[in-house]
Amino acid sequence: VTLRRQIGLKKDQYYLNKKIVTRSDVMNVLESAGFSRSNPYYIVKQGKINQMATAPDPQRLKILREVAGTRIYDERKEESRVLLRDTENKLEKIIDLLKYIEERLQTLEGEKEELKEYQKWDKMRRALEYTIYNNELEDSRKRQRELETRRETSGMVTEKLREALQGSTDKIKELSRDLREVRTKLQTFRDEKEALQHEHSSFLKEKTKLELHIKDLKDEVEGDASSKKRAETELTALRERITEKQAELNQIRPEYEEMKRMEEDCTRKLSLKEQKRSELYAKQGRGSQFTSKHERDNWIQTELKSLRRNIADKRVQIDRLGADLKKDAKRKEELEAKIDELTKELENNRSSIDNQNKTFYDMKKKKDSLQNERNDLWRQENSMQQNHNMLIEEKAKKDQLLRSMVGKTILNGRDSVRKVLQIFRERGGSYDSVAKNYYGMLIENFDCGKEFYTAVEMTAGNKLFHHIVENDKVGTRILQ
């Protein structure tokens, strides 16, 4: 027996008597020749021989049996007996199965004749059924042709009705869009009307306030004019009074001059009379006007008292007229000063009124400009709000259509993810970074032409609604 092993770059082959065999066949041949893998004594370790020599007899007997392969033979023998018993059991089962098969074959031989009889009558039955079915088929084809004719006729009518329905649907959509636009414009006009009414009320209030302010200013101006007029009237009256007093003074002045002259004459006459009296006293021998000296002295004293009283009255009158003149002059100065003050105040009020009017007109102009700008912005806001509401309504319709096309489960998942991301953004911190690392669904991250919509939909399918994240940790955080 020759055993050869050939090891190449790609193959490892065994040759037994120049025939290619497997490795398991080689192992079986070696075991049958007494070279078992379980025998550990093909290579003896150092010190093992000394151990065997000094070992007791039972152990050496055991080692001898192991080297001879007796133990392995016994084990294999026991295994062979187990296999033999299993084989005998299987053989018994096979014999029982063969008996059952023979019995079944005998039964089938009996059923074979019945089957032939059955096939004969079945053939006749199928022939009759074929005839019946063929007649029914011809009737069905005839009815089908009739129905196809009627269907073609009804198809034309249906097509016309479909076209009419499509036209009506388009018209309804157009009318609905026009109705929404009209309602939007009507609401805009109503809002503008309310704003204009509010603005009109504000203008009326402002106008009333300004009219009252102007009336107050006019009243103040008229009051200043009345004060000025009253002061001018008093000044005129004082001037007239001064003129009257001056006229009275001019009238009294000649009399005063006359009385003064008379006083001087009387004084001179008195001096002359005194001198004359002295002369008369000296001339005792002359005749006298009065019967006695006492009578003469009484007369002279009476004349002097009368003259002095007249002089005192004139002086009092002159002093009174002078005081009145001073008082009137002082009053005149005060009234002129008051007139000048009122004139200046009136000029200041006029200047202030002019400035206030100018400021008012400037502010009114600025207010009108800002009001117009506010109205424009308000109209733009209303227009944008209406467009926003229309877009929200359109988005809701599209979302409802998408929900009916792809199913509620996908869109519910999308809504849940959006809610989770909103909560993360509100919390901030590390949650915000998770929200930033979420990039949306696949359908939201690319775009293509309309002519490729059907191809993309058929190719990707529901994968268009898969979610895109930075890594698996972000997806895990969102799912948690």
UniProtKB/TrEMBL annotation:
The superkingdom listed in its UniProt entry is: Eukaryota
Domain named SMC hinge is located at 436-479
Please list the coiled coil stretches.
84-248, 304-359
What are the protein's GO molecular function terms? ATP binding
Query: GO CC terms on record?
Result: chromosome
Gene Ontology BP terms: chromosome organization
InterPro entries named among the record's database cross-references: P-loop_NTPase, SMC_hinge, SMC_hinge_sf
Q: What are the protein's UniProt keywords?
A: Coiled coil
Among PANTHER family, the record links this protein to:
STRUCTURAL MAINTENANCE OF CHROMOSOMES PROTEIN 3 (PTHR43977)
Q: Write the protein's name.
A: SMC hinge domain-containing protein
From which organism does this entry originate?
Medioppia subpectinata
Q: What is the lineage of its organism?
A: Eukaryota, Metazoa, Ecdysozoa, Arthropoda, Chelicerata
